[in-house]
Design brief:
Oligomer: homodimer
Low-confidence stretches of chain A: none
Helix content of chain A: 40-55%
Distance between the termini of chain A: 76 Å
Number of strands of chain A: 12
Structural class of chain A: alpha/beta
Shape of chain A: elongated
Strand order of the largest sheet of chain A: 2-1-3-4-5-11
DNA sequence: TTGTACGCGTTATCAT
DNA sequence: ATGATAACGCGTACAA
């Protein structure tokens, strides 16, 4: 089965390439008879137009670049699946790349995608990205770009986010409602806006409930893994008397903490209640199961991709497009790790 | 920042397009002086050659299509990360698509990728793929394709697999070695070669150890989820007296079984030992932690991508290429769910 | 109703 | 050392 082009069809039929092209695209000025002739032969030869040539002419690649900070967290898979869903519906292809949570790599991937002439880019900023020149370059280069999850105010583009402040507020309030008044926070470093917003939500909620904020029970993890959680748990254990609830920025950290506290004989949730972020599948398996803030990754992916495609198509049709920031709702999923009902 | 082409550079410099192209590509027959002139201006204008036009001429898109049966299993993420790694090194882009474990979708995705003129395709067959015409079409279409993980003998192409028979043999032998002689098997349906091979490994190992095979303790799960495992556990419980070890084809199923058996008060591993496949991150979290066969997804991805690119480049240089089948080693990871030492 | 001619941006070949 | 030309495959304004 060799590859055929308009030319081969034209030759076999003894007509011009232009006619073949028009026939296949149902131009009105082609007779029904030739249309049929052409289409039949195309069918028979299994002809498909060369999308590269098409892209060259149309100045559209139908390619979308998707950059994730890592491919380890379940969360980004959920997002990717949402992206693929929408892209497929709208007839776009998705190129996947990982920045490995590293700014240089982020820059490199962005360059590669722009050079590949993708029609648009979906990006979650790496936690180590502190300067946004490379992202703004892409925008100035007139390539539509949508930030998702990890965003920055220093970039003027559409964004899809979760309201981290509100999420942390819901989480903290939940802990307070079940009777915790000594609530520790476990988070990553402050580069990411996400971490800052959650911290603010946490702190404000304490304030609104008349609970003093105590710096000594806020812990900063080295990384987002189970082992980092285990390490933190030992430090929490030292402050055991000052803590009866933990707001943890990340499910994996929370799981590590649960594992270690179990080993140390601390009763969860009776002595210390704990709550995570992400609703990763792990949360159902831990002992006890983990209360968590669900972030609806699939939905984030869908929305981000939808907006991006809208923007791409607006650009093609030279319509103006106004930037949007969409907030995807979060959800508190209550499980056993916060199931005590103290008074 | 507008987009520039060779033409704009040529005009600004008052020289021909051909010269500009040659200068940028370091042709020997261009004077050092003009080379410098051209390169400086290109730099200044932030010129990047249009990869679409390049592809059109070179008949190479530098695009690789990656089709996974689903994007839920951690395993495929590992594979994807291996693929991305190699692709990046060799300067290829990866388009990701999911067949959703559904043959029609697999066909559709394959078509789309071929139409997009990808240079090659990485495919894991869906469990519901029973006929391979569509895959063979791709090969006849002269698009290099490598099957990974889920493969079929009915397709003549390079393959990257794990030796499922051997894996099941290792697993079964391990159960026997720790003293289990009543070993149940839990698997999915038999469409997938994988399931068949594991079954053969299981059965042969029983035979080699003089243990009779009993059909009534082989269970077929409806799907690969935790809930399916929970359902199976109830059936296992009915046969409790005839089972003291479980070979489970899938970590999620195993986790479901553990959860339910815990609830039913069955002691693991003392009364029943259990073992899974995949080394998903969950395995460290269950109570007890789960012994498993690690499949090195990252390595599968790397190898598959390497072979594919070799084949692509052989094709470009019109060298012959001989198909390979690579076996990625598996590993038995011992954890607490099989830690008894009976005699 | 059909065909001619050109352009998209690049590179290879052949003249100059 | 440089440039004119053609070609990759497609779509379209314009001419016939």
């Amino acid at each position: 089965m060799e590859k055929h082009s308009l030319k081969t069809i034209a030759q076999k039929l003894g007509i011009s390439v232009a006619t073949v092209s028009k026939a296949l695209n149902d131009y009105k000025d082609i007779s029904a008879a030739t249309k049929k002739k052409v289409k039949d032969l195309a069918e028979e030869l299994n002809f498909v137009p060369d999308s590269v040539a098409k892209s060259l002419r149309a100045k559209q690649s139908r390619l979308i670049g998707f950059i994730a900070p890592d491919l380890l967290h379940h969360f980004f898979f959920n997002i990717l699946s949402g992206v693929l869903k929408v892209a497929q519906e709208k007839d776009y292809y998705v190129i996947v790349a990982s920045s490995e949570d590293n700014m240089e790599n982020e820059i490199r991937q962005l360059h590669l995608l722009v050079n590949k002439r993708v029609d648009g880019i979906l990006l979650a900023l790496s936690d180590n990205t502190l300067d946004y020149g490379h992202v703004n370059n892409v925008l100035q280069n007139d390539t539509p770009l949508v930030l998702y999850d990890k965003v920055s105010k220093a970039v003027k583009c559409s964004k899809v986010v979760i309201n981290d402040r509100k999420a942390a507020q819901m989480a903290t309030q939940h802990l307070i409602d079940i009777g915790c008044h000594k609530i520790a926070e476990v988070r990553g470093h402050f580069n990411a806006l996400t971490a800052i917003d959650r911290f603010i939500g946490y702190r404000n909620t304490l304030r609104d409930n008349g609970i003093p904020y105590k710096r000594e029970i806020v812990f900063e993890a080295n990384g987002p893994t189970i082992n980092d959680g285990i390490a933190i748990a030992d430090r929490i254990f030292e402050h055991k008397d000052n803590i009866n609830g933990i707001l943890c920025h990340n499910d994996l950290l929370a799981i590590g903490i649960i594992i270690r506290l179990n080993e140390l004989g601390v009763k969860i949730p009776e002595e210390i209640a704990i709550l995570g972020f992400s609703d990763s599948p792990y949360t159902k398996i831990t002992q006890p199961s983990l209360t968590t803030i669900k972030q609806h990754g699939h939905e984030i992916g869908r929305k981000a991709c939808e907006i991006l495609i809208e923007e791409i198509e607006a650009k093609v049709e030279k319509r103006p497009f106004k930037l949007k920031t969409i907030e995807v709702p979060i959800e508190l999923i209550k499980r056993k790790s916060t199931s005590k009902s103290l008074t």
